[in-house]
Amino acid sequence: FHSFPDGVETDNNLTFNLAAHIHMIGPEPPSGGGQNIPIYTQSDTLTLPADVTASGFYITNVQNNLIGNTASGGWAGFAFPNLPTPVGLSKDVNIRPAAALP
């Protein structure tokens, strides 16, 4: 699992990594196509709802360089959530990760 989770991580090089054997966490694997899956909320068995759509690479700020990486398994190999503000330990940092989109 390769992750830039908070949205403040920029100008990093993530090169030639393999993310494999990714398993989704939760009460049941999501079903449906595209973006049409049930809404999951935090619970005793699911700390982070995004884990039901686990991916090998979870990049929250596109101002990073991903070169030659490969992923297998999970909901999607690469996830690029569009965060309006930083999260986690960086929630008070004054940047807008979504503003980094070209």
What tags apply to this protein structure?
102 residues; mainly beta; 7 strands; globular
Measured by DSSP, the beta-strand proportion falls in 25-35%
Mean pLDDT: 81
Tell me the total number of β-strands: 7
What proportion of the residues is helical, as a percent range? under 10%
Name the strands of the widest sheet in spatial order. Answer: 1-4-7
Q: Give Rg in angstroms.
A: 14 Å
Broad shape: globular
What is the number of helices? 0
- Secondary structure class reads mainly beta
How would you describe this structure to a colleague?
This protein is mostly beta strands and 102 residues long. 0% of the residues lie in helices and 26% in strands. It contains no helices and 7 strands. It is globular, with a radius of gyration of 14 Å.
